[in-house]
């Protein structure tokens, strides 16, 4: 069965934007499923999912994920001092082997209009040097489009996914936490919605409740312990390494 999201989003958008947004909502979906399994998995659930996609709900969620990720990104770049690709190009940075960086500089110097700064130029005006490094990296990105650079695209999508997950972290923690409370609460007593009490069978759906408790619990722990700034920085570094290494093959 074809995935309808494949027709609406490219590979990067699905991984970096759509999936983070859907992961935020998954604890809620699982919680509702534990209460109303037949509704969620039946024709009604399918109709709701189809309606959500056709009405642009998924686009909206993906846009929120991107916007929150970009907001977090600005803060992270301030803490990091710039993009890793720019920082690693500096003569005085130790993230790359000196000989490796020299090869990258030589290739970019010969191919990029304006070249890259010398050590003396970098020491004289670091801000101006960083602008030239960023320009060289922009040129490199344009050369690395297409199927021949799959590793770069993969690492870029991984970074986008983690960045957007961090941007959605407050909402993810809140919804996963509420899901945990709702599921555990329904284990011990029937759930009351307004003036109506759900059927007693809801409280006895042990399999669904166990699954929902595990999912919401794992998500809550993951949002708290995994989705952190260091997790995003690791992906940013991997992307920087993959992108700059393309200089070897240009």
Report on this structure.
The protein is built from 13 helices and 2 strands. The longest helix has 25 residues, at 11-35. It has helices at 11-35, 37-41, 43-54, 57-80, 84-89, 98-111, 119-124, 126-143, 150-167, 169-188, 200-203, 206-225, 229-245, and strands spanning 192-193, 196-197. The two termini are 40 Å apart. It has 250 residues and is an all-alpha fold. The mean pLDDT is 85. It has a two-stranded antiparallel sheet. The chain is elongated, with a radius of gyration of 24 Å. The chain has one domain (1-250). Helices cover 76% and strands 2% of the residues. This is MotA/TolQ/ExbB proton channel domain-containing protein. The chain crosses the membrane at residues 18-36, 42-65, 172-193, 205-226.
Distance between the termini: 40 Å
**Beta-strand percent range:** under 5%
Q: How would you characterize the largest beta sheet? A: 2 strands, antiparallel
The secondary structure category is mainly alpha
Strand order of the largest sheet: 1-2
Summed up, the helix count is: 13
Q: Mean pLDDT, as a whole number?
A: 85
Q: Write the H/E string, N to C.
A: HHHHHHHHHHEEHHH
Which range best describes the helical content: under 10%, 10-25%, 25-40%, 40-55%, 55-70% or over 70%? Answer: over 70%
Q: Radius of gyration, rounded?
A: 24 Å
The tally of beta strands, per DSSP, is 2
Poorly predicted runs are none
Shape: elongated
Count of discrete domains: 1
Keywords: Membrane, Transmembrane, Transmembrane helix
Organism: Peiella sedimenti
Transmembrane segments: 18-36, 42-65, 172-193, 205-226
Protein name: MotA/TolQ/ExbB proton channel domain-containing protein
